[in-house]
Amino acid sequence: MDTKTRRHFSRGGGRGERRENPSGDSLEEKVVHVGRCAKVMKGGRRFSFSALVVVGDRAGRVGMGYGRAKEVPEAVRKANEQARNHLQTFELAGNTIPHGIVGLADGGRVLLKPAMEGTGLVAGGGVRAVLELVGIKNILSKSMRSSNALATVRATLNAMRRLRSRETIMRMRGQTFIRRDA
């Protein structure tokens, strides 16, 4: 493994890597996890890398991408491109979510609960990356079952996809919404 590859390699610890945005849009990129796979061949080990990237605009849009390549920068580029092509828009209630929900995906299970102003972002790993880049500032979360970064990110996106605001539910039921605090 050459020094360039070794320098960019990490085991996924820390808060993730934020990168400058080369295109002109307002999307922010965060590398959640970089994995290394070794294949033993006749001449020694051959390494390949995988990268999990979350991209968002901190205003309700976020996407996830997963890329694999022989070099880390190429894997991150592929994941970034996939994340930008799979952006989704989510309903938020100010700086938090409208209601509590459990998201399931693969072996991961993530519990998300709305929190009052000043609580902050109580989340770790891939869950934190998704919630930060979607623009949530106050939330409580618990990652259960799996510690796999890909599973927790997918479970978080599954939970976010199923969120509905009060107005949306009333509209689906065919009722008119009357705001009580006004």
Strand and helix map with partners:
Blueprint (H helix, E strand, L loop, with lengths): L2 H6 L8 E3 L8 E14 L2 E13 L4 E9 L2 H14 L2 E2 L11 E5 L2 E7 L6 E2 L2 H10 L4 E6 L4 H13 L4 H8 L9
Parallel strand pairs: 8-9
Antiparallel strand pairs: 1-2, 2-3, 3-4, 4-5, 6-7, 7-9
Question: Would you mind describing this structure in some detail?
Answer:
The protein has helices spanning 3-8, 72-85, 125-134, 149-161, 166-173; strands at residues 17-19, 28-41, 44-56, 61-69, 88-89, 101-105, 108-114, 121-122, 139-144. The protein is an alpha+beta fold and 182 residues long. The chain folds into 2 domains: 3-88, Double Stranded RNA Binding Domain; 91-165, Ribosomal Protein S5, domain 2 (2-Layer Sandwich), CATH 3.30.230. Strands 1-2-3-4-5 form a 5-stranded antiparallel β-sheet. The chain has a 4-stranded mixed β-sheet with strand order 6-7-9-8. Helix 3 packs parallel to helix 4 (149-161). The model is unreliable at 1-15 (pLDDT under 50).
Give a quick rundown of the structure.
The protein is 28% helix and 34% strand.
Index terms:
four-stranded mixed sheet; Double Stranded RNA Binding Domain; alpha+beta; 34% strand; elongated; 9 strands; single chain; Ribosomal Protein S5, domain 2
* Mean pLDDT over the residues: 85
Report, as a whole number of angstroms, the end-to-end distance: 64 Å
Structural class: alpha+beta
- Spatial strand order of the main sheet: 1-2-3-4-5
Distinct helical segment count:
5
**Annotation, overall tally of beta strands:** 9
Main beta sheet, described? 5 strands, antiparallel
Q: What fraction of residues sit in β-strands?
A: 25-35%
